[in-house]
Amino acid sequence: MTYIAEPIQRKELRSLAKAIREILQVEDRLYIPVITILEKVMPLLFPNFSYEYVPKEEFPDKKHGETDIVNHIVRIREDVYYGAIEGNGRDRMTVMHEIAHYLLLVICGVKFERNFENTDVITYKDPEWQAKALAGEIMCPHELIKSFSADEVAEKCGVSLPAARYNLSH
Ligand SMILES: [Zn+2]
Predict the structure, then answer these.
(1) Cα 100 to ligand 1 centre (Å)
(2) Stated pTM of the model
(3) Which residues have CB atoms below 5 A from the ion given as ligand 1?
(4) For residue 65, how far is its CA from the centre of ligand 1 (angstroms)?
(5) How far apart are CA 152 and CA 103, in angstroms?
(6) What is the C-alpha separation between 18 and 41, in angstroms, rounded?
(7) Residues 112, 3: contact at Cβ < 8 Å?
(8) What contacts 24+ positions apart, CB below 8 Å, involve 23-26?
(9) What H or E segment, with its residue span, contains residue 148?
């Protein structure tokens, strides 16, 4: 692990996700339009924000997206972008994951630092966990999904089955 962040609990991320869904005007929607949010809503809300689609060969293996907080750019691998448009749950979540990093670090100002000693970091201080949990709460809001099965969550929210199970478990 490279970074350690200020601690945030799931409860706080859940309230933050609710506020973000209101700002994005998708409060009651199960299937949220992640690409429209990335391309239209985010730049409108945050004038410094921009995004780029990067050819697969320009990203290291297994990297699907990245958030450049210095230059305010979210970069998404090109094939992930196409997948998200076609409704692939994992790709849709990747887009929201990067948006979540941006919102946490730039908009909410969550402080973080390098973990020089490379010590084990408690989950709620792990920026990756924070982005995963926030993206999950935005895509699969607890209040709307709690009575669904994992299959229903995956289908209605447009997320992968593992993501549906993960979000139902909290
Ligand atoms: Zn991440």
Answers:
(1) 9
(2) 0.93
(3) 128, 131
(4) 8
(5) 28
(6) 16
(7) yes
(8) none
(9) none
- 104 C-alpha to ligand 1 centroid (Å): 11
Q: How far is the CA of 96 from the centre of ligand 1 (A)?
A: 10
Tell me the pLDDT tens digit for each residue of 70-117. 999 999 999 999 999 999 999 999 999 999 999 998 888 888 888 877
Residue 66 alpha carbon to ligand 1 centre in Å: 7
Cα 130 to ligand 1 centre (Å): 9
Phi and psi torsions of 75, nearest 5° = -110, 130
In whole angstroms, give the CA distance from residue 144 to residue 114: 36
Q: What is the pLDDT of residues 9-48, one digit of tens each?
A: 899 999 999 999 999 999 999 999 999 999 999 999 999 9
Q: Say how far apart CA 38 and CA 11 lie, in whole Å.
A: 25
Rounded distance from Cα 126 to ligand 1 centre (Å): 10
Instruction: Decide: 97 and 77 in contact? Cβ < 8 Å.
Output: no
Rounded distance from Cα 1 to ligand 1 centre (Å): 12
CB 89 within 8 A of CB 159: yes
